[in-house]
Amino acid sequence: MENYQIFLPSISTAAPSSSQLIMKNSHACIEFQANKSIGLKLNSDKATDGGSNFSNFPESKGLGREETSRGKLTRDRKKVRKPRYTFQTRSQVDILDDGYRWRKYGQKAVKNNRFPRSYYRCTYKGCNVKKQVQRLSKDEGIVLTTYEGIHSHPIDKPTDNFEHILGQMQLYTPLN
DNA sequence: CGAGTTTGACCTGCGC
DNA sequence: GCGCAGGTCAAACTCG
Fold first, then answer.
1. Which run of H or of E encompasses A112?
2. Among A51, A21, A23, A47, which residue's Cα sits nearest to residue A34?
3. Quick check: A164 and A17 in contact, CB under 8 A?
4. Å from A117 (CA) to C6 (C1')?
5. Chain segment A132-158, per-residue pLDDT in tens
6. Which of residues 7-36 of A touch strand C (CB under 7 A)?
7. Nearest C-alpha neighbor of A121 from the set A112, A131, A111, A113
8. Which of A16, A69, A73, A113 maximizes the CB count within 10 A of its CB?
9. A72 beta carbon < 7 A from strand C?
10. How far is residue A80 from each of residues A57, A76, A86, A164, measured CA to CA in Å?
11. What per-residue confidence (pLDDT) applies to A104?
12. Any idea which nucleotide's C1' is nearest the CA of A84?
């Protein structure tokens, strides 16, 4: 960790909608963006790349489902979106080993991006943290990892730098 | 056998 | 209203 910058919002509802953390070392470059997701509508035009629209988090999208034609979906999803944090990582591998255990629950092709987006959920009991992993089509060396929510448990298998990063996230994350 | 992955179907919101 | 895109579910499958 040679170069470490943090730009984080004050913990206030009037805080700027995004912040950045940039980490660099000899083998990786990570750019971290935190967005308060509640009610944000930042881009008026459609993103040209599948990974560039992570700052758009309509509050109600895909939420509130209780029962459907399948008759199986009875979960009561919260209507409040958790904050999301996007890491932009230059890496040859899609999956950042952040020390937590994740279970993949979906993969989708993204418009204007030849790489699919993968959806993961933390497998720790009671931990509802999700993440999305996507490679940029215009620079396939860059992987966007979007975290949604805060882990409420210790890291399962601590790895060097990421424990630091995630610790910072929890320190600075505004609570809902 | 349990945990994790794959993948098609389904649901919802949004733009036209 | 319709189609598209994003997000999620869950059965089937794979792997250790």
1. none
2. A21
3. no
4. 10
5. 988 887 777 788 888 888 877 776 665
6. none
7. A131
8. A113
9. yes
10. 11, 12, 19, 27
11. 93
12. C7
